[in-house]
Amino acid sequence: MDNRQEQRPDQYLHSQMIQAPQENPQTDRASEQKPKRKLFWPVFLAVLLTASLTFIVTAAAGYLFYGDAIRDSSVNGLPSDPGETESPPVETTKNTLTFTDKEGVEEALDKFSAIYNLLQSNYYQEFSDAEMIEKMTLGLVEQMGSPYTFYLTPEYHESVEDSMKGEYVGIGAIVMRDRDGSYVVNDIIPDSPAEGAGLYVGDRFLQVDDKDASDFEDVGQLAAFVRGEEDTQVTLVIYRPVEDRELTLTITRRGITNVSVRHRMLDETVGYIHLTEFSDHAAENFENAVLDLMRQGALDLVIDLRNNGGGYAHECVNMLDVLLPAGTVASIEGREDGESYKDEWKTTTAALVPDEMRYVILLNQYSASASELFAGAMRDMGKAVIVGEQSFGKGVGTMMWQLSDRSAVQITGFEYFLPKGESVEGVGLMPDYPVELAPEVEIKAPNQRTLEEDTQLQKALELLKRQED
Fold this sequence. Notes:
Blueprint lengths: L17 E2 L18 E2 L10 E3 L2 E3 L13 E2 L32 H18 L6 H14 L7 E3 L1 H11 L2 E4 L2 E5 L5 E6 L4 H4 L7 E5 L2 E2 L6 H8 L6 E8 L4 E8 L1 E4 L3 E5 L4 E6 L6 H14 L4 E5 L8 H11 L3 E10 L2 E9 L10 E6 L6 H11 L3 E5 L7 E7 L5 E10 L15 E2 L4 H4 L12 H10 L5
Parallel strand pairs: 1-22, 16-17, 17-20, 20-21, 21-24
Antiparallel strand pairs: 2-5, 3-4, 6-23, 7-14, 8-9, 10-11, 10-12, 12-13, 15-16, 18-19, 18-23, 22-23
């Protein structure tokens, strides 16, 4: 898998996830053809998650078909174009089922057929066959067991794509989904409507315009609902843990331009880079920031990844290429076209910085995915120490598959391992120097904190203090 490419994660007001690279797709892996078998059901799609009364069932995927037609089942691979941007539509063979094994399929289809007919005949509301198929499709995706695998409507998909370009109409809050399913504000864009309305980091969404937050399938769907036409209003009901109370905020949407990389000098020798997400052009902007800080006299760097929920894998690897010599920064294990594969992500060029440059990376509980890959690789390579709090723990990556109607399915396709073999999935990274912020400081976005109240940044400066000759 070649990762050195431009690409569209796991979202302003969108889910940010490590993404597989896009522009250099993998070559197609051969699919082993299974013996053909005949199917005699009135179905062309086998999968179900829908309920009526006491029925809750999930079955295999396929299209429904009717009559006495006999269809053959064969193994068909999807196009190998990982990435979350404009992936080509998935080609499917009409009115066929795709299975990779025989065991249990016949029984599962029998059960599926019986329940489908019961629901179609007895459910108190009537749905067309097309509507039933759509419900089954959503049910299959939702039952895969990964919170990072989900379906996107065409509108939702377009909204997610726009957000990773750094410009959209919304309120300027970055949101992630916590492990308990809550939607939490993890960063706020400076001078945005969200900041003006008094939204805090850590605020939890309860409602968006009378729609319960628990009804959203994932954070990207919530994000698409919060966005809208410029100068229109959205009403949010949030719970603020630091004050233990609910608040209602009405915020006017406007055009948002996010600058994902900001930098400045902290003192005569220490530069500071704040990265909010690994979005389009983040690596290019990061490289420019590093070079500018060096021109200003920076000998060491603080890299602030607090509240950074991740983004594109290739942007992360390209940023590491600025700081590290050529080498392996992650090992990948995943599945594609029905086959398991292993791969490595590597830096390929000489570092642009002096070998003696030192780094402190700031993390907190909202640092996830590509942030953890970046920080973990830098530490494993002996180049950085980590200050702050235990990170989120997202060690898997996703691929976005665009369908023919411009809807899409995001699929958890691989797990990554740091240079020393560690996976952060469900675990996160433990800091070398644990430092917590005061509650009244933690609710502020990193750019809103002063040096006097930011004890984590103070610790970083202390570690980088150079002895005077």
